Amino acid sequence: MGITRTQSNHADAAGSGTTLNVSLSGVASTSLVCLSTSYDIGGGGTESVQDDLTVAATGINSTSAGGFSQNTALWYYKNYGGGNRTFSQVLSVAHLNRGITVAELAGAVTGAPLDGTASNNGTSASPTSGNLSPAPSIAGTYVFGRCEGANQPSSASPASDIFQDSTTFGDTEDYVQPTPAAFGLTWSMSSGSFQALAASFKPADARPQRHALPHNQRRT
Amino acid sequence: MTTVNIPQFSAQDTPRTFGPASLTAGLSSLTLTLDVSTMVSGQVLWMLIQFGDPNNWTGSAEADFDGPYVDKHTGQLVNTNSLTMGFGTRGDQPVLSEVGWRIQATVWSVNGPITIPGGQLVAS
User: Which pLDDT value is given to residue B29?
Assistant: First the structure.
């Protein structure tokens, strides 16, 4: 079965503020919940993500590099409690161009689902997160990521678009990798500066890779 | 596209709701845009948008806003604020609005009333 995206939602706000909330209805218990956020970094301060029960999301990675004034971050909840929930991007001081995307995933490991991470920035018409480290080693690994650009990025094959954020110039996408191999997410945009993040998660129904025993160790 | 025109009103600390209004089937995002040109320093405007069944809203987004700002993409002073929500996806398919769904916007202020010359709630 692997990991499947069961629902998602997205909000972005152009003007300056400290709180941006977005809801999911009927979240199943034990789900994996992945979030991406972004905001204009002018003014400093800190960012956190929490739900309406004030349970904090776990930060995966973040970056404000790339040559333009934006910060991008990935977050997750493992083995989530479920229900009708609101997720909040909370900034310690007001910022412009805020965005939050949340996705509920079914079929992930509940104990320690986070596997690899990747972070990259530069100038390109094909922004990439760079390869995940460690590389996915399980068939059906789920990969979630966000790219912010000086221009509007779009999702690129083989990933699927979750939401394109025209306020921040961001895009959140995901992909289920069928076979273990080195992998990073990519996007497309008119060439310009970018910052890109990715994270991978383990499926619950993964089977350990079998390795044949050397001839001299086989039973006869 | 479904558009709800919001007339001039005074945002107060008691929330003011516009709608619910019928939503055309097959749409996938919702944007509230308000003229905030009268805001002064220290005031905060809260914006809430909702879609779905009014008895049990399917989705919502909410944000605060502290006044006109300079857009980083254009460098121009912006006297409006917008809050956009995607309706979400089921698997890889966009969730499109269904027959019977409604939309509404709720607005309130902190630190004094704010005259809002007008705005729009647009589903597309």
Answer: 86
